[in-house]
Amino acid sequence: MPLTREKKEQIVENISELLKSSKMTVIAKYQGTSVKNMQLLRQQAKKSATTVKVVKNRLVIQAIKGNEQLKNIDISHLEGMLAYAFNNEDEVAPAQNLAEFAKTNPQIEFIGAITPTGVWIDADEVKALSILPSKPILIGSVITLLMSPIGNVLSASSNGLGGIVASLQAKTT
Fold first, then answer.
1. What pLDDT does residue 143 have?
2. d(CA 122, CA 42)
3. pLDDT tens, residue by residue, 79-103
4. Model confidence, pTM
5. Residue by residue, what is the 3-state secondary structure of 143-173?
6. pLDDT tens digits for 52-72?
7. Taking the alpha carbons of 31, 36, 39, 41 in that order, is the dihedral positive or negative?
8. Alpha-carbon separation of residue 15 from 19, 50, 51, 52, 66 (angstroms)
9. DSSP assignment letter at 84
């Protein structure tokens, strides 16, 4: 049953909101992926606050053209059976979700991504983004790095004044 005009307008409005709020919208071909596997992808992506949508490309194009910041994006890439992954919390999560899923479903192929500022990112750059650690892991790494000098001072001070003096002498030589 074809979609009514009102339903199409609702879909365009929904996609417009997702495009505006998403820190990164990743686009991938999914041709040959079963409905069951697409449902599995949606479930897995939801765990990292990523929303995966399969929408008619012309409705997505209408949503893009209706967005002032995105209207200059080259839409020639939006052809074929495409899935759109949105995330309003993490820039890398949509690419990671699709890349992880593609390990067991090789028919998933990156097309590119759209940033909220209207920059098109090609498929190779999206693949590179997908191997970056997630935001919580990066934050944890930075905190660990920042805490290591404090840990060294505390360790030296727990050894008494002699440990601090020995540390200072080692630094000066």
1. 84
2. 23
3. 999 999 999 988 899 999 999 999 9
4. 0.76
5. HHHHHHHHHHHHHHHHCCHHHHHHHHHHHHC
6. 999 999 999 999 998 888 888
7. negative
8. 6, 14, 11, 11, 10
9. E
The whole-angstrom separation of Cα 29 and Cα 22 is 19
Domains and CATH numbers, the chain: 5-132 (3.30.70.1730), 136-172 (no CATH)
**What is the three-class DSSP state of 32?**
coil
Interatomic CA distance for residues 150 and 158, integer angstroms = 12
Q: CA torsion sign, 106 to 58 to 116 to 77?
A: positive
**Quick check: 158 pLDDT over 60?**
yes
Taking only the tens place, the pLDDT of each residue in 122-136 is 999 999 988 887 777
Q: How far is CA 115 from CA 16, 87, 122, in A?
A: 13, 11, 11
| Whether the predicted pLDDT of 30 surpasses 90 | yes
Q: What is the largest CA-CA distance in the chain?
A: 81
Can you tell me the distance from the alpha carbon of 159 to that of 170, in angstroms, rounded to the nearest whole number? 15
